[in-house]
Amino acid sequence: MNNKFFPANFMFIIMMIMGTIMFLSSSHWLMMWMGLELNLMGILPLMNIKSKNFEIESSMKYFIIQSMSSSLFISSSIFMYMSSISMFSMFNNSLFSPIMIISLLIKLGSAPFHFWLPSMCKQMSWLMLFLILTWQKLAPLFMLSFINFNYIIMILSAFMSSILGSIQAINQSSLQLIMVYSSISHLGWMLPICFINNFLMFNYLLIYTIIILPMFITFSMKSTFFTYSLTEQNMYMNKENIFTMMLILSLAGIPPTLGFLSKLMVLNSLLNMNMILLSLLLFIGTLISLYFYLNLMMLLMIKSFFMFKTNKMMTNMKSIMCFNMLGTIIFIPMLLYAMNILNKS
C-alpha cells in the first residue's frame, strides 16, 4: 500500500470510527472490549500506508502492547464477572479490579506504563501521531470514567504522568518526542477529571485536539521533525510562526489562551472535591513543562525576529489574541454548564 488513496484505506477508517462508536454507545463490558478490538484492527493498517520499515516496527509495537492490555482487560472482566451479578455491574474490590484499571492505563500510555509510547511514536508520521495522541485516548478514558473503585491508582498515575511527562521532555531534540511527552503530561490532567465529570474530560480532550491539530498540520507540511529545523531561515514561514507560537502558548496553558481555560476547569473541579495536594502537584508539573514550551517559543521567535520590525506587527498580534479570546468565550458556557450541572453525585 502506498501513500495514494485506496478503497481499503477508507474501509479501515470506517472500521476505526465504528469501533469508537461501539464502545461509546455500549453499557456492556464485553461489547466495549469488542469496540476496542475493532478500533485496533482499523488503525493498524493505516499505520502501514507507506510500508516503510520504521512504520512496520511501530505498528508491531503498538499491536503487541494493545493486545496485551486487551487480554488483561478481558481476563479481569471474566474473573470479576464470576464474583458479580452480571456484566453490567462488576464493581467490587476484588484482586482483579486493579488489573482492569492498569490494563486501561497501559492502553493510554499513562505513567508509569508509558515507556512504549515514545519508542513507538518517534518515527511516525504527524497524522498518525495525531490519531494516537487524541482519537485513541477516547475509549480508555471513557471506560475509566465508568469504574467506581480504586481511585488511588488513577490519582497516582495522574501525578506521575504530569511530573514524568514534563521532566522527560526537557532537552529533547525531536519534536515528535516533545509532543508525545507533552501528551503524557496533559493526560495527567485528564485522568483525575474522568471520574468526577465526563463532560469536562471530553472538553479537555477536545480543546487539546483543537490546539495540536493545526500545529501538527504545519509540522507535516514543512516536514519538520527536529527542533533545530525551526531556526532554518525561510522568509515565507514567518507569519505562520507567529500562529505556531500562540498555539505553543495555548498548549502550555498560559492565559488568556484556550489551553488555560481547560486547566482552569480541572483545577476548579479538583478544588471543589478537596483534592488540594493533587492540584498542587499537577500545577508543579505544568510549571516544569513551561521550560521546553518556552524553548520552542524562543526558537520560533529567533526565526521570525524581523516580523517584529514591521508596521503590521500590532495588527497581527491583536488578531491572534482576539482569536484566543474568542475561543475562550465560546467554551465558557459549555464549561459552566458542565461544572454546575453534570457533576457526579
Automatic annotation (TrEMBL):
<keyword id="KW-0812">Transmembrane</keyword>
<dbReference type="InterPro" id="IPR050175">
    <property type="entry name" value="Complex_I_Subunit_2"/>
</dbReference>
<feature type="transmembrane region" description="Helical">
    <location>
        <begin position="30"/>
        <end position="49"/>
    </location>
</feature>
<keyword id="KW-0520">NAD</keyword>
<keyword id="KW-0830">Ubiquinone</keyword>
<keyword id="KW-0813">Transport</keyword>
<dbReference type="InterPro" id="IPR001750">
    <property type="entry name" value="ND/Mrp_TM"/>
</dbReference>
<keyword id="KW-0679">Respiratory chain</keyword>
<feature type="transmembrane region" description="Helical">
    <location>
        <begin position="95"/>
        <end position="117"/>
    </location>
</feature>
<keyword id="KW-1278">Translocase</keyword>
<keyword id="KW-0496">Mitochondrion</keyword>
<feature type="transmembrane region" description="Helical">
    <location>
        <begin position="321"/>
        <end position="342"/>
    </location>
</feature>
<keyword id="KW-0999">Mitochondrion inner membrane</keyword>
<dbReference type="GO" id="GO:0006120">
    <property type="term" value="P:mitochondrial electron transport, NADH to ubiquinone"/>
</dbReference>
<feature type="transmembrane region" description="Helical">
    <location>
        <begin position="242"/>
        <end position="261"/>
    </location>
</feature>
<feature type="transmembrane region" description="Helical">
    <location>
        <begin position="206"/>
        <end position="230"/>
    </location>
</feature>
<feature type="transmembrane region" description="Helical">
    <location>
        <begin position="273"/>
        <end position="300"/>
    </location>
</feature>
<comment type="similarity">
    <text>Belongs to the complex I subunit 2 family.</text>
</comment>
<feature type="transmembrane region" description="Helical">
    <location>
        <begin position="5"/>
        <end position="24"/>
    </location>
</feature>
<feature type="transmembrane region" description="Helical">
    <location>
        <begin position="61"/>
        <end position="83"/>
    </location>
</feature>
<dbReference type="GO" id="GO:0008137">
    <property type="term" value="F:NADH dehydrogenase (ubiquinone) activity"/>
</dbReference>
<protein>
    <recommendedName>
        <fullName>NADH-ubiquinone oxidoreductase chain 2</fullName>
        <ecNumber>7.1.1.2</ecNumber>
    </recommendedName>
</protein>
<keyword id="KW-1133">Transmembrane helix</keyword>
<dbReference type="InterPro" id="IPR003917">
    <property type="entry name" value="NADH_UbQ_OxRdtase_chain2"/>
</dbReference>
<comment type="function">
    <text>Core subunit of the mitochondrial membrane respiratory chain NADH dehydrogenase (Complex I) which catalyzes electron transfer from NADH through the respiratory chain, using ubiquinone as an electron acceptor. Essential for the catalytic activity and assembly of complex I.</text>
</comment>
<keyword id="KW-0249">Electron transport</keyword>
<dbReference type="GO" id="GO:0005743">
    <property type="term" value="C:mitochondrial inner membrane"/>
</dbReference>
<feature type="transmembrane region" description="Helical">
    <location>
        <begin position="149"/>
        <end position="170"/>
    </location>
</feature>
<keyword id="KW-0472">Membrane</keyword>
<feature type="domain" description="NADH:quinone oxidoreductase/Mrp antiporter transmembrane">
    <location>
        <begin position="26"/>
        <end position="289"/>
    </location>
</feature>
<dbReference type="Pfam" id="PF00361">
    <property type="entry name" value="Proton_antipo_M"/>
</dbReference>
